[in-house]
């Protein structure tokens, strides 16, 4: 998902998403959104759909 899509789902502004993403990455010690997505799937926080 890009920032705009994430903002729509979370009902927050795109700017907030852009501020939150680096904080989430830092707290989870992950490099990018792809690693966050993999983390979420591995820990049952998100489902993978092909």
UniProtKB/TrEMBL annotation:
One of its GO terms (biological process) is regulation of DNA-templated transcription. Residues 4-40 form the HTH luxR-type domain. GO terms for molecular function: DNA binding. InterPro entries: Sig_transdc_resp-reg_C-effctor, Tscrpt_reg_LuxR_C, WH-like_DNA-bd_sf. Keywords: Transcription, Transcription regulation. SUPFAM superfamilies: C-terminal effector domain of the bipartite response regulators. This is HTH luxR-type domain-containing protein. It comes from Paenibacillus sacheonensis. The lineage of its organism: Bacteria, Bacillati, Bacillota, Bacilli, Bacillales.
């Amino acid at each position: 998902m890009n920032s705009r899509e994430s903002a729509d789902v979370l009902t927050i502004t795109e700017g907030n998403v852009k501020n939150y993403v680096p904080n989430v990455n830092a707290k989870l010690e992950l490099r990018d959104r792809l690693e966050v997505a993999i983390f979420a799937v591995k820990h049952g926080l998100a489902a993978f759909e092909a």
